[in-house]
UniProtKB/TrEMBL annotation:
GO cellular component: extracellular region
Stated name of the protein: Protein boule-like
Main localization, broad class: secreted
Record-level GO BP terms: arachidonate secretion; phospholipid metabolic process
Entries under InterPro entries matching the protein: PLA2-like_dom, PLA2_histidine, PLipase_A2_dom_sf
Amino acid sequence: MIHSSLLDFKFMIRRITGKSALISYNGCCHAHDCCYKELTNQSCHPFFDDYQYSIINKDVMCCE
């Protein structure tokens, strides 16, 4: 399990895609934005709060 924040997002992209965050930006950011929107709708602050996730077979699994 990895403890992270928005600042570590580029490392997640690199680990999943094996590419630079700038190259893989669109697809990953769309998925990430959807997750962040859902969290914001639940009164969370994902851009500032730390969160945990796991990477299993190149799939990112958010944790509570």
